[in-house]
Amino acid sequence: MGNSYLWLKAWHIIFVVSWFAGLFYLPRLFVNHAMSDDPVTCARLALMERKLYRFMTPLGMLAVVFGIWLWQAYGFSGGWLHAKLMLVTLLIGYHLYCGKLLRDFAAGRNRHSHVWYRFFNELPVLILFAVVILVVVKPF
Which ranges in 107-122 belong to alpha helices (H)? Predict the structure, then answer.
């Protein structure tokens, strides 16, 4: 594997880290939004949520594109890769569900408590742990 592999891998990691930063922070904004009754604070949080989601969506797309590019160009295989792909699919679903939650907040339809969002916020952390272990250790 040559120099181009290392560049693809570097860009993939950069976009993954950037996407995860958004996935970690957006639900924290939801926690604060669910706790607030102040219309000015809610409007500010809704603006922050919307801007963050618009920023992190292309980062997630680029992470996936570079990951697929690596996979197709270098032909990785094994059970670890299937597990990783399943977790990435789950993460994409999580991202899209965050978009739904954002729209619910914007429309005044939030149905969850701040405690629910605190637990919801932990899912990408667990996925990150699992994906890193799968990619580095390749346990199967």
Answer: 114-120
* Alpha-carbon gap, residue 76 to 61, rounded angstroms: 20
Q: Is the pTM of this model over 0.90?
A: yes
Distance CA(47)–CA(41), nearest Å, equals 10
Q: Indicate if the alpha-carbon torsion angle 66, 71, 73, 74 is positive or negative.
A: positive
DSSP 61: H
Q: What is the pLDDT of residues 54-64, one digit of tens each?
A: 999 999 999 99
The CA–CA distances, whole Å, from 79 to 65, 72, 82, 102, 139 equal 21, 16, 5, 35, 8
Residue 2 has pLDDT above 90, yes or no: no
| 51 CB burial (10 A radius; 0-12, 13-18, 19+) | exposed
